[in-house]
Amino acid sequence: MPFAQIYMIEGRTEEQKKAVIEKVTQALVEAVGAPQQNVRVWIHDVPKENWGIAGVSAKDLGR
């Protein structure tokens, strides 16, 4: 059972998350031949203050 974990800075819409789930699922089906019903995708919404870029939080960078 393929299991994909996606880490993203918070703020994506529900529609964007649905698109990520659909496209990652399809990529795993095509790449490894897994049945679609066996693919799992977990999106981690990370708070901006918990995501660092070059020593600065994404929140402080205005992301």
Automatic annotation (TrEMBL):
Domain of life: Bacteria
Documented EC number(s): 5.3.2.-
InterPro entries: 4-OT, 4-OT-like_dom, Tautomerase/MIF_sf
Keyword list, A-Z: Isomerase
Gene3D superfamilies: Macrophage Migration Inhibitory Factor
Residue positions of the active site: 2 (proton acceptor)
Gene Ontology molecular function: any one: isomerase activity
Record flagged with keyword Isomerase: yes
Family: Belongs to the 4-oxalocrotonate tautomerase family.
UniProt protein name: Tautomerase
